[in-house]
Structures are given as C-alpha cells and as structure tokens.
Amino acid sequence: MRALDTAATGMAAMDLKVQVIAGNIANMSTTGYKSQRAEFQDLIYEHVQRVGAQASDQGNILPVGIELGSGVKAVGTPRLMTQGTLTQTGNTLDVAIQGDGFFKILMPDGTFSYSRDGSFKMDAQGRIVQAEGYVVQPGITIPANASGLTISNQGQVSVTLPGSTTSTVLGQLTLTRFTNNAGLQANGDNLYTATPASGTPQDGLPATEGSGTILQGSLEQSNVEAVTEISNLIAAQRAYEMNSKVITAADQMLQSTAQLMR
Amino acid sequence: MENALLVGLSRQMALSHELDVVANNIANIDTTGFKADKAAFSEFLMPHAADQQFSGSDRKVSFVQDRATWIDFGPGAIEHTGDPLNVALDGKGYLVVQTPRGQRYTRNGALSTNATGQLVTSEGYQVLGDGGPITFQPTDHDISISPNGIITVREGASTADSQRGKLQIVGFDQMQLLQKDSSSTFKAPNGVNAGPPPAGTRVIQGAVEKSNVNAVAEMARMIQITRSYSDIAAILQQQGDQRRNALQQLSQQPSS
Description:
The complex is a heterodimer of chains A (262) and B (256). Chain A is built from two helices and 20 strands. Chain A has 262 residues and is an alpha+beta fold. Chain A folds into two domains: 2-28 and 39-76 and 224-258, no CATH class; 86-220, no CATH class. Chain A is elongated. The two termini of chain A are 22 Å apart. Chain B folds into two domains: 3-73 and 213-244, no CATH class; 78-209, no CATH class. In chain B, β15 (179-180) and β16 (185-187) form a beta hairpin. Chains A and B meet through α1, β1, β2, β3 and β4 of A and α1, β2, β7, β11 and β15 of B.
C-alpha cells in the first residue's frame, strides 16, 4: 500500500522540522544566531490517468486525471537573515552589526570564516580575537598601555595612548557582504563559511555600500522568536501524529483484507 | 454469484487509492504552496452482467471506479516569515519557474538568490520576470517587492531605488487542467496557455503561502475510508460464509 510509504515521508519531514525547531530554541540566547526554517516540497506524482487524455472516440478529453502523489521531501533549511535585537552590555570590545554584513575571522588553517557574533576579546598579544581566540580581520593589536578604546560606527578602532590627549587610530574593522546570505554554510561556533551558493565575499567598510553600521558596547541577540517556534513545534508534532494515524489506517485496511481469508 | 465479491473489491480498490491521496495530503501538510488533491469516484455500470431471461429481470450491476483526482486550488494560509525574498501570492496567480524540463508554474514563493545573484526557487531554478531571469547586483540591499511584483533595491551607496525587474505572474482559465509536477510546481499540458493573472492578484513580500490541506477534513476522510473499507471486508466475509453454507446445505444427501 502506497499510503504507508507516503506517510513515512511525512513523518520523516516532521521529524526534520522538529530538529530544526529544537536547534532554534536551543540557540535562543546565542549571540548572532540566525533562525532556520524547514522548507518542504512534494515528491513526484504517478499519473494513473493523465489529465487531457482522450476519453471517447468523439474526442472528449478527461477534464481531470488521477494523480497519486508519493509524499514530501525537505529541500532546505534556509536561515532567516534578519536583524536580531541589540542588547547593551557596556563591554568596550562587544560590537554589534546593525544591518547587513559579517565580521571576517582568520581561522587557524589560514581560511576565512564569517560571523555576526561581535563579543570580541583581547588575547595575550593584545590582538582583537573572537570568543574562540581566532583573530578578527584585519588584525588590530591594542597596546598594553592604551586606554579609552572606542570603535566608531564606521568601525574605526582608536585608543588614547599614555601622555597623549588625542586618540590614535589603530585600525579599521571591515564587514563582508554576500549576494545570498542564506547560502552561507554554518560551521558551529557562530561561524559561517562562503559557498558557491552564497557568492564571493565582498569586503567593505561599515556604513558604506549597503553594509551595516557598528555599535560598540552592544551585542546582537539571536533572531529566534519563541512564540513562532513553539507554535511551529505544536503544528509539527500534530502533523507527525496525523501521519502516524495514516499508517495505522493503512495497516487496519490491510488487516481487514488479510482477515478475509480464514 | 461472484458479483457481490467483485463489486466489493472494486470499492476497496477505489478506497485504497483514496487513502493514497489522503496520505499524500497529510504528508504535505507543511509544504509551502501545496494544493490538496481530492479523489472523485463514479459508478461504472456493467450492462452485460444483467440477465433478462429470468422472470423478474436482473438489475444492472454497478461497480465503483476511481474516476479522477482533482486539485483543490483554494488558497492556503499566509505565514509571515520576514525574509525579504519570500513572496506569497494573494489571488489565483502563479510564479513562472524555468526548469530543465521547461517552464513550470508555482505558488511556492520561498525564493532566494544563487551565486550569480539570480532569483531562484529552493531547488535552484530561475524565477522568471517579465524580461527573463531577475538578477541582483552584489551591492544590492533593502530589496522591496511591490504588490504588483516590481522588485526594487538600493544599489550600493545610492539613495535612489533602482528596479531589478517585475515578477512574471500568470493565471489560467482552465486551472483544473494543470498537472502536478512535484517540487511544488505545476505543468501546463499542451493547449493550456498561461494568460494574465486574474484581477486582484497581488504579491505579499516577507510571507509564504502554506499548504491548503485541511487537517480535520483529511482525518475525518481517513476515518471514513478505513470504516467503509472494513465494512466492505465484512460484507465480503458474509458473502463467503453464505456461499459456504449454501454449498454445505446443497451437498447434503437427503436421508431417505
């Protein structure tokens, strides 16, 4: 019975949806996290009786045919790349991006990753690093005796050096943009890498050419909306249950057929 | 004698097809832009089974035949997603998708861009505008899609809107002739031509159209299917018993 397999694809799809929701809820307070959504499409149809087929010698055609579908498949879990809410932390090395763009991070293997998580720290050499200790690009080193670190809206990092009354510019943070943000590959640790689907990274200065601006002393919260996730979870659970009921129904029908023979 | 069995069987075959249809609807309860299928049956009269030679003439035997599945083109719920490249169509219009198999039509507006900036479906097929594929520049931002499908962006540092194209939205006079072609797309058979969309069709940005499967109705339908299926199984069973009794009684030798 086809219904058994069809319902199984439905259960698998709902299982995936619950996994996606679980990931979103687990990351509800992850800095810079972008929520995911499971996207489904229907599977191929068997055209038992093709629509438009000739029904009689007089040239009548069937106005509708018999199409039996074979279930559902997951096509993707696109990320919703909208702005998360900003919370003030007061920490001078916490920065949030308001608008489009990603921080560029140098990985230990020499490749680049991209992140929206701006909870930066200073390492032993005074370099600005992200939470895992990877250096934020372009590398900016803060002298040990510097004070009054400020990061401007345009990403300019400046400090006041001892014996000076004016601030000194140490460097300039850049933001990287992609044609298709949703095409980035998530690698954990709030890091993304570029893929053929995301397009080539375009480095640029904050607050120019569509890039967002930088806000010092704030962090971008995840854009997960609890209410949406919970209502989706309820819907997914019910849909899973309904698919299992289809399996029960198909099973009952097979059973009553099997019982015909005694 | 066999007719009751065969008529019952024809109904059971039709019911099992119908359960397949219901199963597919329920499996696609969360598929963007999915349109539910409904099964329709017709009576199939078999005139040759009637024998007119008996004193009270037989009636014609009617079988069940699954005639068709038709697509319920009713609108699905509109879910707000917040993604600027998600569009839902309000009204009976379709987006045009270029697939390797030819042009297909879809109500699934969960769109994105590919590496070259073209507007594509989640399967990666180009979504066509009035002048072919719609392409965004790498510096485009603040994408806005108007209710009639015009896509405008801000390019780079520019403060003026620039237009990237207009979504091609089509409509069909005979929508029931459309065939489902998987991946939430429809195919127009030969002779069915896409026309302008019906008046009042509008594009809603940042939302997608959910499946129009009505869970309650499908569950009720399913219960009905399993009940009638087991009822018929019971009838077939009785029919078998009846035949066995008849054979037993008829074969008993009169004890003279």
